[in-house]
C-alpha cells in the first residue's frame, strides 16, 4: 500500500492529496463516510471521480446517472486535457480562496468548481458535433448550480469562481488561463446577430462580484475589473477599471491580480 501510494504521489500528486484528505475526513466525521467513499475513495483516478460527481449532480428523470457517467468517462478518456484542467482548477481554488483549506473541498462541496467541470465536458461534446447533448449539460448545470455557461465558450485552465452564484458566460466568450471571478459576473453579448459578440478575457484577470463585461471587447492580461462595474470598452493589460460605465482608475497593483485577489481601490489608484 505504501509503495502504491508513493507511486501515485509521483504520477498524480493532486489526486494523491485528495485521497489522503478523504481518508482523514472519514476519520474526523464518520457520518460522511458513505459520501466520501462513493465520491472519492471508491475511484482509482481523478477522472473517474469527476465522472461520478458530475453524473450525480446532473442526472434527472430525462437522463440517468449511468448514461451521464458513461458520457463523462468517454470525454475524459478521449481528452486528457479535461482532467488536467480540473487539477489546475482545484489548485487555483485552494491557492486563492481563503475558505478552501483542502484540495478535497472543491470536488465535494464547491459548485463553482463542479459547474466548470460540467462545462468542460459539455464543451468537449460541442467540439465533437454533439450539440444537443452539450445543450442538455448546459441546461442541467444551470438548473443545479445557478451558473449558465454556453458549451461553445472557450475557457482556460486554473479558473477560480468564488461563491459562483449567477455566473453567465456567453457563446463566443473566451476566458484565458488563471482567471478569477466572483459571483454574479456576466460575460455577455450585445445585439442579437449570430456573430462574435462576447468578451475575450486575457490571462490572469480578476473580475469582481457583479461585474458585467459586454460585447466583443478585449480585457487585457493581468487586469482588474472592480465589483459592480459595467465594462463596454477594451481594457489595457495590467490596469484597473471601475464604474458604470467602467473607466481606467489606475494600474493593476500587482503582477498577478487573479492570484492576489486584492479588490480594494486605494486612494492612489492602485
TrEMBL record:
Pathway: Amino-acid biosynthesis; L-cysteine biosynthesis; L-cysteine from L-serine: step 1/2. SUPFAM superfamilies: Trimeric LpxA-like enzymes (SSF51161). GO terms for biological process: cysteine biosynthetic process from serine. One of its GO terms (molecular function) is serine O-acetyltransferase activity. CDD domains: LbH_SAT. Its EC number is 2.3.1.30. Keywords: Acyltransferase, Amino-acid biosynthesis, Repeat, Transferase. Pfam families: Hexapep, SATase_N. InterPro entries: Hexapep (IPR001451), Hexapep_transf_CS (IPR018357), LbH_SAT (IPR045304), Ser_AcTrfase_N (IPR010493), Ser_AcTrfase_N_sf (IPR042122), Ser_O-AcTrfase (IPR005881), Serine_acetyltransferase (IPR053376), Trimer_LpxA-like_sf (IPR011004). GO terms for cellular component: cytoplasm. Gene3D superfamilies: Hexapeptide repeat proteins (2.160.10.10), serine acetyltransferase, domain 1 (1.10.3130.10). Residues 14-118 form the Serine acetyltransferase N-terminal domain. Belongs to the transferase hexapeptide repeat family. This is Serine acetyltransferase. The lineage of its organism: Bacteria, Pseudomonadati, Pseudomonadota, Alphaproteobacteria, Rhodobacterales.
